[in-house]
Amino acid sequence: MPSTNRSNQLEDLASRYRHDGQLDIGQNGYIGILKGLGVPANLSPAYKTAEGQYRQAKDPQERLDALKEMLRAIPKHKGTEHLQADIKARIKELTDELAGPKKGGARTGPTTFVKPDGAGQIALIGPPNSGKSALHATLTGSHAHVGEYPFTTQFPLPGMMPVHDVAIQIIDLPPIATEHPVPWISNVLHSADGCLLIVDLSEPDCVERIVALHDLLNERRVVLTDKWPADDGVADHEHDLFTKALPTLLVASKSDRLDESGDELAVLEELAGIAYPCHAVSAETGQGIAELGIWLFDKLGVVRVYTKVPGKEADMDRPYTVSTGSTVRDVARLVHREIATQLKYARAWGTSEFDAQQVGADHVVEDGDILELHL
Prior knowledge:
Largest sheet: 7 strands, mixed
Mean pLDDT: 80
Order of helices and strands: HHHHHEEEHEEHEHEEHEHEEHHEEE
Distance between the termini: 60 Å
Low-confidence stretches: 13-40
Number of helices: 12
Radius of gyration: 23 Å
């Protein structure tokens, strides 16, 4: 194949990869195209390490640092030009986000980033007047402003929902609608572990609103999925590097106003072409509220680990929370970063260990384990 034709094919395929929603081939698929056209990707170990750090980062500054390292380490040739452009675009977005919102020529106003806290971070998304703020107030005890008029919520509002002996962070967000675009929505959703898609089934145009919401999120490279961490989640390679795959629970709010909310949800899913797990709640009567917290706890794959000091009883009131598959080292890092680096071994009590069994730093912890860390 002549080099000019190969370059033209690469340009066409890479352009479709970047801009055409019909070609969802992901980062691995993109590299596969380069190889298929004879263009070596040659991504260095330093780039792959930085990419892994970007995927794991929750904080915008951490993501920005990882992106800068990715741009520094990526091979500079024709085959990576589009990937370089994507990285540069994300660097600009994050730099602007960290600088703060613009108002009157100066960067002032509330931040659009919410630092993750608790056993997981869940975003409330939905069309206008879907009942998000009322549900947020019921779940967290917050004083979210609730109004019958649209676009009451303008900036992210965090709150904590107690479940068992931990808390899950719930973030109320502005409604997502074509008449009120939220340019920073993808950035704030990047740190979320999942979302509740709130819908008022009594609204006659709820199907059209949900379809429009999906279209707007797709434009911002946010893909809603029915797979949650406890279901093994969505593998990173299923979407390109800069697409956020967000586990979703479809929540019918104001269910006390409907006779058969379950049937209404089934009709909505069929008409809107979606298939998420569903749950009906009422912020007014409390219907489904307690079950919602337990469902989220289970689906997030929360693992609670308790710690103890040698010679003393375990602290059973304040567990550390990690995700399924985490290790003793991950827990030690939450206690203190230096403890994680100096850790020699731990003694463990729990469902999978003998009492006071000595385990290494790579030992996988389970929900309810007790650890005694030794340096």
